[in-house]
What we know:
With about 700 residues, the protein is an alpha/beta fold. It is about 35% helix and about 10% strand. It is built from 20 helices and 19 strands. α9 links the parallel β13 (about 300) and β14. The longest helix has about 35 residues, at about 660-695. The model has no long low-confidence stretch (mean pLDDT about 95). Beta-D-glucopyranuronic acid binds near residues 180, 306, 341, 385 and 413.
Amino acid sequence: IPQTEGTHPAWLPDAALVHLAAADAVVLGDGPLVDTVRTEVAHAATLGGGETAPRPAGGASPDRLVLALLDAVPDDAPEQLREAVDLVQRAPGDEGFVEVRRTGAAGTTVTMLATTGHGLLHAWFHLVRQGAAVLGVRPEGDRSGAQASLRVEAHEPAHALRVLDHWDNVSVHPVMGQVERGYSGGSLFYDDGALRPDLGRVRQYARLLAASGVNRVALNNVNVGRREAQLLTTHLDDVVALADAFRPYGIRVHLSVSFASPVVLGGLGTADPVDPEVQAWWAQTAAAVYAAVPDFGGFVVKADSEGQPGPFTYGRDHADGANMLARALGPHDGVVHWRAFVYDHHQDWRDRSTDRARAAHDHFAPLDGRFDENVVLQVKLGPVDFQVREPLSPVITVMPQTRVAVEVQVTQEYTGQQQHVAYLAPQWTDAMQTRPWGDDGPAVHDVTSGRATLARRGITGGGLAAVSNVGQDVFWTGHPFAQANLYAYGRLAWDPTLTAEAILDEWVGLTFGDAPDELRTTVRDLLSGSLDVYEQYTAPLGVGFMVSPTRQHYGPDVDGYEYTAWGTYHFADRDGVGVDRSCATGTGYAGLYPPGLAATYESLSTCPDELLLFFHHVPYSHRLHSGTTVVQHIYDTHFAGVERVEEMVTAWEKVAPLADPALAGRVGERLAEQLRSAVEWRDQLNTYFFRKSGVPDGRGRRIY
Ligand code: BDP
């Protein structure tokens, strides 16, 4: 079990495994991932002071816990095991497993059956997550007798592709540093231009990711610098070493590649996707990668966006570009994650028709049906850029013939940079569970999983992708509570129908399982609702941004982006605020959705309050559905947001002595900064809107 001295165990502390110590588990099967399961089982056994090696099936007592590959169960297996095999109706897929649990007079026996070692590993972590109850141990005080029962449950991941993208640079970037938008110290992989010599923490990380559900990791930043581009060729050894570290936990590695690689690495005169020499270069390069890393996952590409090269240079479109790479990877079962984050960041701010929210839609909607089967279009959840509140990207609803993946930002770039507590899962579950075509239509997760009837038969969904929030920090994520976001992402990628609250309970239970109730309840309460608090004291009603450009998007600067070319505006003046994205008078963006949703957003009378300023420009006196005016809403929420942070600080102070001192210290320090920053947000926002509007606070509070 990879553990690094001094590093926080996150959601896999030994306390979370101890209930499995007494299970005396039997593991049947062969292969590298089955060996990983054996190591896990042996480690758990040591926690109870038991055997360190798993024993063979059968024996003196009945086996309480068996983890077996279906084809490794011998014909003369003990009856309990044979019976469990007979109960499996359909052999689980690659990563799935079946759990058979029987409770009888002799106690509870659990049999986990899988087709592959990968499935068995997920079965193991499923047992870890369920805690003591898994073996029929009832909570203290529960005196009800054990009911005889038999339960058979099949588990499969909703998405085959559950990717975590690292925006890590090999060489330290002069502005972005070692990890672009990283708030957790250095990179786990690279240190100042080279691969870290000791990848012990990467192995530990792989274990955590596998336990959450993630199965793919992209190893470098989507903005690909020269040294990063070379991972594909001259520095392929780095990729080999990282793949070796991830492999025992079933995680495949991917690379972000530069579209200009044939020029910058191959010395060709062009990277034009229709040029046969360019195609041959990519095919050879991909073949060399697969020769070194046979289970390599594929490429991630940010093209024609924020300065990255792309097919537009050669007058080609994004289907030409993506398919060319897909054909190089196809023979090796690789995929291209092609990002839809394409917009012009040099737009003319006076021209409202160049609405940045429209850009991805306008580039990609016409290309539906043209992408090869191993291209996944990776679409940011919202149409602009990972803000605390955005509507769903309409791209997700207009590509029925394309494999669509939704991309979320686990790293808290715009949500407090891991200084502020912001549990992001409610944003993701709301979006994944939305039914954009109406209550009877498919949910977003049916699109990403491929369960929705896609117009093109036989293609599967694109899954989920996310930007990682980890680094060298002892707590992995800077703010210890930001671990919950990473955990939640993995769990949702596995099962997007889970609720944010249920995942939070799981995370608290695993991470703080042996802590006093009071501490666990407080941690839970601080996280639950924390995103609402953050939204209250930052940019109002879906208008977005207002973050400081000079402080790398941390803290407020209401007009920081207002007169720049990035396309993220609020259009506040003395009369009103908000972006008119209606079809009647604005950019027409509201009309890009399926009809019901489009109508809801188009009309002021039906547009939800929380997105009002995303879709409409309104006077400060406009009355919200909540009954209050826009300007009064801004004042009220900003005062309330700070008050709620004050309550969080007090709540934490009460329980901090019950926590590990290092963790308590870190959380306390971050909460103090959150409070300082929330006050700054409140005062800047309230002052700004008071001066623009001239409308005083209806409750007479002092505005600084
Ligand atoms: C923006 C980040 C920038 C990323 C970009 C992206 O500020 O660092 O490169 O997203 O997703 O939000 O490519």
